[in-house]
Amino acid sequence: xxxxxxxxxxxxxxIFANYIARDTRRLGATIDVEHSHVxxxxxxxxxxxxxxxxxxxxxxxxxxxxxxxxxxVEVLIYVFDVESRELDRDMHxxxxxxxxxxxxxxxxxxxxxxxxxxxxxxxxRESVFRDREQDIIRLSKPLDVTxxxxxxxxxxxxRAWSSIVYQLIPNVHELESNLQEFAQxxxxxxxxxxxxxxxxVIAHAESVKHRDPYRFExxxxxxxxxxxxxxxxxxxFQSMEVRNSTFAAFIDCxxxxxxxxxxxxxxxxxxxxxxxxxKNAKRHFEKIEKASQQYMR
Length: 297
What we know:
This protein is α+β, with helices and mostly antiparallel strands. It is 43% helix and 22% strand. Helix 6 packs across helix 8 and helix 7 packs antiparallel against helix 9 (271-296).
């Protein structure tokens, strides 16, 4: 939810419908509520309700559609336009959403995206975000809320949505535990698991700390754009190896619903050994995935 023009439909189209950022300019305003059902990790179906943010629609959601819109909600994602000139009204609608959530879906997780941050000068982004985040946290009490700084023009959008989806995966801790063992067997610096359709990071394990906290989302963004380029040429992306004098990175199809990325800084490990280990691990992780699908039914 969020006011009209805040960027809700654009971000949904980029993450789940394979749009690139510049193509979202042709998207029109959402009328009332637009429903979409996205299959994620096989059997996990995300029912996304993209709610139009025009004032008449917002008032209607709280007046006559309150029980329908806010009942059985797992996650509320509220999008704030960082350049909005009607911040008080935005906060009023946000608090109205929270009141409806408390009444109808008290266990729902709350996320707020401070969006269009690319329009803020780079040297002010952190302070602008922190100020807005403090206001939102204060107004959200007694509910807990997680805030993200986002833009469709960089990796921050993938970071936010990866974090949101991560909390919806039922066996994510088991998955990460097995990834950690896999990383140790490979003597890898880190191993990442991506959802195949969206290329969102759903789990990771690391043995060596990295200085770039945004590296996962950057990889998601780059590889997804590369996949889209391949599809335009009627080619399919299968795997990739990137190697230089300091590291090697392998990206490969893994289970039916995932890709895996293995990063190693040991140049003595042959590529053939890593790719063979990835191939041999597929069956084990397919079993974990099937167990997860049974849980989700």
